[in-house]
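[Discussion] Sanity-checking designs against the backbone

I'm trying to build intuition for which residues belong where. Below is a structure token string of 467 positions. I'd appreciate it if someone posts a full sequence so I can compare it with mine line by line.
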């Protein structure tokens, strides 16, 4: 039986094959949003084994294992690396029709060259074989980024980060740009009690600013924006359930903020949205002044399982899709920024597929002359970065906007093996265009369609982020 991840995987016609192999396959990658470790890149780390590079921190895989009833010891617990890999290998055959089944075998094939279906039977052999490869220079963090032809990586960094590893990478003259991205989520945590106060103290230390009011908080954030900008940052990102609205007076929000700093949390929850909006709005103006791209990842319902949150902490696989109202508050923020000529390039991502049409329509309201695709409906994110989810996002954008302006795929991953997601996306979009041609919906102008696909896969992002 031939391995199903072959040259023609997902390519269902001769035209689809031509579009992929002649136009999309060899393009470099602009990975403008990821969670890769700058420290691992700076140190050009090699991974001890495939468990460390593949399973650590991967809540997609963890959720699948839990669905099979696998004991937590073999997921996030104290089992050995080989035992954890065996359990994952035993899980893989049961992930059939889940994107994990495709991703797993794509990542085994590239970069390891393994063309076998992973199972409990060959787990030890594959563990030992990949362990040997992972010690080689080509499989270091920098080696893998070179292998996948990655030109730029946008990491995700807290405003308090000193960005020392980014500076170290820059000094090494590594060909791939590793640029910081400003992710200020913790500064919005007014109702997080001691965690929030500790964070504000840290922000004050890093910015050398005594934070005692909203103005001094914004002064501290401006200093950190300046610091990030000096070190090559051109992107911000925000993980919010929804864009909040401000319905209270600034003076009242100021009062509650000061109360919280003094340890009085009585009104924090009531004023949470108002505080977030006020700070976010001022940050958006800072981004515009720097010419940055701002990103909004909206709609996740996080930490659903409070018992597991207490045991394992956040980002361990207990988040899901929320059903928040998005359109009105998102439009209000963008509109006010537009009125003040403070709306910078913006990418909005939804995790609820029910919001595809809402987001695709929203971006058309705030485009600007002279800027191609200034406001972007971002690629299928999190639960939607699979064949059906990406197809729905592409179709919604095509129907309500211009797919030709789209900045394409990103990894949004902590794994150095996740660049198969770009291949996945490229194969999918080549097949979609080819299908339209075959159905008579598009002309058979292969060079023009090939150029549009190249723009979506690489050139639009390269130009959008000024790379």
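Best answer:
Here's mine. Compare freely.
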């Amino acid at each position: 039986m031939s391995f199903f991840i072959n040259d023609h995987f997902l390519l269902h016609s001769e035209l689809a094959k031509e579009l992929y192999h002649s136009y999309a396959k060899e393009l470099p990658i602009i990975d403008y949003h990821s969670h890769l470790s700058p420290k691992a890149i700076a140190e050009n780390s090699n991974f001890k084994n495939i468990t460390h590079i593949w399973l650590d921190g991967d809540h997609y895989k963890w959720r699948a294992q839990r669905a099979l009833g696998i004991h937590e010891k073999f997921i996030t617990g104290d089992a050995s690396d080989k035992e954890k890999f065996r359990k994952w290998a035993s899980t893989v055959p049961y992930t059939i029709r889940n994107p994990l089944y495709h991703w797993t075998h794509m990542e085994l094939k590239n970069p390891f060259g393994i063309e076998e279906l992973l199972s409990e039977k060959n787990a030890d052999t594959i563990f030992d074989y990949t362990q040997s490869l992972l010690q080689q220079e080509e499989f270091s963090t920098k080696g893998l980024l070179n292998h996948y032809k990655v030109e730029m990586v946008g990491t995700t960094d807290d405003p308090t980060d000193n960005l020392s590893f980014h500076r170290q990478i820059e000094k090494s003259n590594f060909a791939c740009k590793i640029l910081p991205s400003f992710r200020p989520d913790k500064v919005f945590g007014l109702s997080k009690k001691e965690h929030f106060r500790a964070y504000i103290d840290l922000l004050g230390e890093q910015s050398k600013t005594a934070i005692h009011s909203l103005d001094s908080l914004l002064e501290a954030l401006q200093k950190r924006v300046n610091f990030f900008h000096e070190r090559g940052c051109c992107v911000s990102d925000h993980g919010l359930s929804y864009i909040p609205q401000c319905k209270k007076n600034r003076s009242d929000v100021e009062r509650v903020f000061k109360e919280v700093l003094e340890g009085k949390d009585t009104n924090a929850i009531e004023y949470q949205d108002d505080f977030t909006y006020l700070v976010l709005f001022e940050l958006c103006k800072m981004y515009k002044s720097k010419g940055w791209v701002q990103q909004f990842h909206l709609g996740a319902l996080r930490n659903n399982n409070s018992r597991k949150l207490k045991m394992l902490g956040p980002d361990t696989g207990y988040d899901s899709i929320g059903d928040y109202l998005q359109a009105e508050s998102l439009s209000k923020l963008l509109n006010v920024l537009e009125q003040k000529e403070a709306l910078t390039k913006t990418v909005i991502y939804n995790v609820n597929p029910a919001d595809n049409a809402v987001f695709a329509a929203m971006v058309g309201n705030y485009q600007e002359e002279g800027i191609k695709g200034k406001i972007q409906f971002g690629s299928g994110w999190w639960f939607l970065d699979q064949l059906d989810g990406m197809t729905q996002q592409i179709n919604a954008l095509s129907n309500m906007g211009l797919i030709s302006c789209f900045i394409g795929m990103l990894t949004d991953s902590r794994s150095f093996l996740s660049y198969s997601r770009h291949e996945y996306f490229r194969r999918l979009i080549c097949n979609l265009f080819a299908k339209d041609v075959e159905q008579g919906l598009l002309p058979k102008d292969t060079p023009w369609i090939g150029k549009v696909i190249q723009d979506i896969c690489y050139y639009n992002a390269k130009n959008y982020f000024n790379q």
